[in-house]
């Protein structure tokens, strides 16, 4: 399994928006003080390992550097917020800790769009 790509404000355009023209990019907007973020992290790691050929898994720690500007740009209101990008645009999102089955269905429904 490849680990999640760690994003920053400086790398977001290249690693998410540009890369999403090649394959789906999932971004986990999270914070280390957020209990649901810590709950969903290992679930995302496990589920995304099964989709490594189809989805790029990345994480954005909103409290590091200028990263909160990205949360503002995408109107993220709570953490974690999980967003999928395709062709440089947001495709879908959900918020809060969810079980593996929900995440798999979320990915499947968007891979088939």
From TrEMBL:
Offer a single GO CC term for the protein. Answer: cytoplasm
Q: Ranges for the Thioredoxin domain? A: 1-112
Database matches in CDD domains: TRX_family
Q: Which UniProt keywords apply?
A: Disulfide bond, Electron transport, Redox-active center, Transport
One Pfam annotation, family name?
A: Thioredoxin
Q: Does the keyword Electron transport apply?
A: yes
Q: InterPro entries, alphabetically?
A: Thioredoxin, Thioredoxin-like_sf, Thioredoxin_domain
GO MF term set: protein-disulfide reductase activity
Entry protein name: Thioredoxin domain-containing protein
Species: hydrothermal vent metagenome
């Amino acid at each position: 399994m490849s680990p999640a790509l760690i994003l920053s404000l400086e790398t977001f355009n290249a690693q998410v928006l540009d890369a999403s023209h090649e394959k789906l990019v999932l971004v986990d907007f999270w914070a280390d003080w957020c209990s649901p973020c810590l709950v969903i992290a290992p679930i995302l790691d496990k589920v995304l390992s099964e989709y490594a050929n189809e989805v790029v898994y990345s994480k954005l720690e909103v409290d590091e550097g200028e990263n909160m500007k990205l949360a503002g740009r995408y109107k993220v209101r709570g953490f974690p917020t999980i967003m999928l990008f395709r062709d440089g645009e947001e495709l879908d999102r959900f918020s809060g800790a969810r079980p593996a089955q929900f995440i798999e269905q979320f990915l499947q429904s968007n891979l088939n769009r």
